[in-house]
Amino acid sequence: MAIARRWVFLAAFTSLLYAAAAFFSAPASKAQAPADFWNEKGPEVDVALVLAVDISYSMDHDELTVQRQGYIAALTSREVLEAIRRGVTGRIAVTYLEWAGTSTQEVVVDWAIIHDQKSADAFTRQMAMAPIRRARRTSITGAIEFSMERLRLAALRPIRRVIDISGDGPNNEGGPVTRARDTAVAAGVTINGLPIILPRSFASVYDVAGLDEYYEDCVIGGQGAFIEVISEHGQFAPAIRNKILREVAQSTMNDASARPVQQRRSDCMIGERQWQRQWGN
């Protein structure tokens, strides 16, 4: 059953995250969360992977359908299952959630362990059965904070914790995305990105030039963080498969090289400015 969460219920957890971020004094790549921050009571897995998927109105129903089919194809592909089998424990834990504005975060499929074709089929069958829906606004901040809550509560002992964010626009609600990103990274979580930059027959006031650079500068972070860009419909399935392959293959923190420090090229508050210019709030 889908687990709906609303922004108001995240307030206490968000405060906990910010308090935890203040606690960390080591560099982000070496930071460790307090011993009682994670629920380390379940099975060992190579990675606890949150697939956080944008369902905002800027994507049409067909694009959302192709996007979900891409995740289903990736998780059941021979290449991904072989990569899982080659891991330290030979299994990963995955949850699939959808998000839009601050009032829209929903777990479509809760945590499950994937270790073979049968378990992958069982997980993706639940994905395929869930209805496709859309919602207003874009809160990458809310998606990261909600994903952190899912990771914190998961009864798992993962080698790595990864949040996988897909989206076709910048954050425009919920506070600065960099604050949520930095808090997650300080807790030892890696955030990867799937910026979706599809050609459209119309222009929108919320379009952003260089969304890939925005994701690199403002959204992703942590050990081995990377983006995989989708610029046409036919790239959904292979791009998602390649991204999950990389996330599974980085089975230890030592296997994931640190991202080189680079000068920021993007305005990380551009989405908020666009919304304010359009609506004045």
Label this structure with key terms.
single chain, 281 residues, alpha/beta, Rossmann fold, six-stranded mixed sheet, 6 strands, 17% strand, globular, disordered N terminus
Report on this model:
- This protein has 281 residues and is α/β, with parallel strands linked by helices.
- The protein has one domain (3-12, 33-198, 207-259, 267-276): Rossmann fold, CATH 3.40.50.410.
- It contains nine helices and six strands.
- The protein has helices spanning 11-23, 61-75, 78-85, 117-129, 140-153, 177-186, 211-219, 236-249, 270-279; strands at 3-5, 44-54, 92-99, 105-114, 157-167, 190-195.
- It has a six-stranded mixed beta sheet with strand order 1-4-3-2-5-6, sandwiched between helices.
- Helix 6 (177-186) links the parallel strand 5 (157-167) and strand 6 (190-195).
- Helix 2 crosses helix 8 (236-249) and helix 3 packs parallel to helix 8.
- The longest helix is centred in the N-terminal third of the chain and has 15 residues, at 61-75.
- It starts with a strand and ends with a helix.
- Residues 1-15 and 18-30 have low confidence and may be disordered.
Number of strands: 6
Question: Beta fraction of the residues?
Answer: 15-25%
Oligomer: single chain
Helix content range: 25-40%
CATH superfamily: von Willebrand factor, type A domain
- Over the alpha carbons, how many angstroms does the gyration radius reach? 17 Å
CATH architecture designation = 3-Layer(aba) Sandwich
Q: Any idea of the CATH class? A: Alpha Beta
Strand order of the largest sheet: 1-4-3-2-5-6
What order do the helices and strands follow? EHEHHEEHHEHEHHH
Overall, the morphology is: globular
Counting structural domains, the number is 1
Instruction: Determine the CATH topology.
Output: Rossmann fold
The average pLDDT value, as a whole number, equals 86
Main sheet record: 6 strands, mixed
Alpha carbon gap, first and last residue: 35 Å
- Structural class by sheet pairing and helices: alpha/beta
Please report the number of helical segments: 9
- What ranges have pLDDT less than 50 throughout 5 or more consecutive residues? 1-15, 18-30
